[in-house]
Design goal:
heterodimer; A: about 400 residues; alpha/beta; Fumarate Reductase Iron-sulfur Protein, Chain B, domain 2; Rossmann fold; four-stranded parallel β-sheet; 20 helices; globular; B: about 250 residues; two-stranded antiparallel sheet
Chain lengths: ~400, ~250
Amino acid sequence: MLETYFERINEIPNSDKFIQCIQCGTCGGSCPYGMGTLFTPRRMILAVRAGIVDEVLQSGAQWLCTSCFTCSLRCPSQIPITDAVIPALRELSLLEGNPPEELAAALMNITRYGNSFRESPRKRDRWIKEVDFEVPLISKKKKAEYLFITECFGAYHRRCKEITKAFAKLMDLLGTDYAILGNEERCIGDLVRLCGEFGLFEDLAEKNIRVFEKYEFSKIVTHDAHAYNALLREYPRFGFKKEVVHHTQFLYNNLEKLKEMFGKLDYTVTYHDSCYVGRRNGIYEEPRAVIKAIPGVKFVEMKRIKENALCCGGGGGGVWLDSFIKDHIKERPAESRVKEAASVGADVLVTACTLDVPMFEDALKVTGLEGQLEVKDISEIILEAIENS
Amino acid sequence: MKICAILRLVPDLVEEIEVEENEIIPFRYMPNERDEHAVEEAIILKEKTGAEVEVIGIADSENEADLDEGLGMAAAKGADKLYKVVLDRPTYKRCEIAKALADFLSDKNYDLILTGIQAIDSYAGNLGGILARYMDLPYIGGVVEVNVSNGNTIVKKELGGGLLAEYKLPLPAVVSVVSAERPLKFVPFTKLRQAMKKANIEEVELELPEIEGVEVLKYEVPPEPEITLIEGDVEEVADKLIEALKELSIL
């Protein structure tokens, strides 16, 4: 078992730093689930060194990770905990054949249908029939400046589809030369990778790149923080070399044009730094600049911001581990986060990752904050500002 | 000890299905979930007793490619031998499949034949029971646990209302499984692909006998249910709901 673990670890960049763990415990102290697990990352590394991986796997600690990247960022030895230590443990669990059921079903659905929702791949572009403007398909347009990746949540999830529509509408209003893959798109796979399903991730990456190669485009734009991360950081090793833009960056780059369209919004807004926009990829100022540019908006910061922001709990497969996580901790990170947003007086919590919105809206119901606080993606609040003009 | 598990294909309901008067055309097929549980239970028995497990996949020339994933999954989980049985024509008649299968299995000397209790494309429990009849073997369905002891199989069967009963049947026997003792084992993608590459699959063509009996007159899509949205404030909605329930003689 240890052999398989190290074989995998050795394939991941910078994993040689594994041996440099000084057992300082910064990772466990930083972990949103640190209090709920027997094996914090530090103790996982210790257990691997002691050859008692079995005990870690039996405890289920490998699934109590939301891949928020706080431990990896703070680790003084720069050990790739989020990208290597934990996914490689998860892979052992998958090979044993007994991951949590919800997660197993999601992975199986991605294998069969290219999405975690057990939906037909032929319905991936259905959302374009629900908008009052034309969304161009790259198969018809052949060439575009931006290829817009909607990813599974943006294409199928009832709430997240609204974010996709809002962002597409903004590109339409801005006259952007963009197109979508439609039903040729399949899961980009960042959560699959973080869940330790490396074989499936490689298969998805190779198939997606083959589709990308059919068409002419200069950049990819996406509102899905994990798709952004995988396309930016992981796909290049499979031969994909195009520029990847997150929608917060796209909106920032178009801010002058947007400003001309803005009406006034009477909101007190706070911004949640999504892990794979902020901490992992360093995009902190662009979304803040865009939100602050909306006339009438009062911007307030929460206490935990930028690299210290608290995760929504949806990343790294967390979105498929809800019932498992509920068994281990009393308050889920999303619940703590919406309470924090309410405590600074915000009436709108703006996010920039499709996973955040359903995670936080669920947390609003649990905490009784529904009605007091609203959750909106950055593209939704911008569209609202424009429609209010 | 030698066990076999039967793996059927059913239409994948994630995709839309075309329904014509004399035929149903699925977009694609997938393994029948209850049969996957039968395979799982066979693997569990292998772990318990060291039995040899053979999995028999059934398809026809139109959907045989869709069987590979299910057979690969069985191989990855530890099945010793795989058969891909390709029927010479598609049929909705379970009797015809059961008869052809009974002839095929007659010289295989299985101690235990496991099937799923039901499939979405046929009436519950049809195949297992009919197969047992043709093979002149004892049969039990609704099973959630299978054990073997001294030439018998001891099974736990669901009786409904949360009750379970234990039954003893002499081997050989046919057992239809509702669900395996544990959730279906997850098989990672790489392991599945490797198993599919390496799998020892024996392909067999089977001629179906013509059996008279139930004939399909026509297929039709059930009418869309009528949905009425009751709008208004709480009092109004409650009044309208009571009225509607009275009209339906529910109140």
